[in-house]
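FORM 12-B: Structure-to-Sequence Request
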């Protein structure tokens, strides 16, 4: 088997200097030259989890620095990492689905497998966010709330922010039933690009479009919203997909500010 992807980036997000970001693919080549799956869940051992996190970070030249990760619970809770003395261990216990920081050299990340990872960056004030926007988080407006938190905490202006929507399940594949769709009532118009009807009586929901719209509603400029064009469900060889596989691995998406 040949590896087609070793690291995934959100188009154009790398135009910013003083910032590193990436998402992990499904497979990597280990030291014995074998193809192995990234295991960030740590089903086999938590040692392996840390080893794989470090290993992935090394593919983007970040040495021995696993990301700061929160305890994701499909909520709209936001954690702001302001205190440099907080450890990875402490942060990993915080229940939240978005993490924001102005601290340099501290990678902040989130795990997904179909849910949309959203990165926000303020190039003027040098503040970054990593957001887990699944169906629940999207429904609760987590992108919108993260923008408000950046505004409140750091004085960020929404029109200065750049958003990157990473690897997630596309509107091509994310099928939902009527009950699920009804939970979005009054939040989005039930029409393309947000929702498409299927012949089987179900619907296709485009979480990318919904989150992009939330960003626009919160004051982001449409041209500052960048998105990955890839669908996790469509690419079993490259990415994990919860919808496709049930019990599966996770994609890590992180952002790290560098000093400027
Ligand atoms: Zn798809």
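FORM 12-B RESPONSE
SEQUENCE OUT:
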């Amino acid at each position: 088997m040949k590896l087609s992807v070793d690291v995934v980036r959100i188009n154009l997000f790398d135009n910013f200097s003083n910032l590193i970001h990436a998402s992990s693919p499904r497979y990597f080549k280990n030291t014995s030259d074998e193809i192995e799956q990234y295991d960030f869940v740590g089903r086999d051992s938590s040692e392996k989890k840390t080893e794989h996190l470090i290993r992935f970070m090394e593919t983007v030249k970040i040495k021995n620095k696993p990301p700061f990760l929160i305890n994701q619970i499909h909520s709209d809770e936001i954690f702001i990492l302001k205190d440099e003395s907080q450890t990875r261990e402490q942060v990993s216990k915080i229940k939240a689905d978005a993490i924001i920081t102005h601290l340099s050299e501290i990678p902040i990340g989130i795990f997904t497998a179909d849910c949309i990872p959203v990165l926000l960056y303020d190039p003027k004030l040098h503040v970054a966010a990593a957001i887990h926007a699944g169906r629940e988080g999207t429904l609760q407006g987590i992108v919108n709330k993260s923008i408000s938190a950046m505004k409140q905490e750091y004085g960020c202006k929404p029109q200065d922010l750049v958003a990157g929507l990473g690897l997630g399940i596309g509107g091509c594949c994310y099928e939902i039933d009527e009950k699920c769709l009804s939970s979005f009532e009054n939040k989005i118009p039930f029409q393309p690009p947000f929702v498409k009807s299927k012949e089987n009586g179900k619907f296709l929901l485009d979480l990318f479009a919904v989150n992009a719209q939330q960003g626009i509603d919160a004051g982001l400029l449409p041209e500052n919203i960048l998105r990955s064009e890839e669908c996790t469900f469509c690419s079993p060889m490259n990415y994990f997909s919860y919808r496709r596989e049930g019990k599966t691995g996770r994609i890590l998406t992180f952002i790290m500010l560098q000093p400027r």
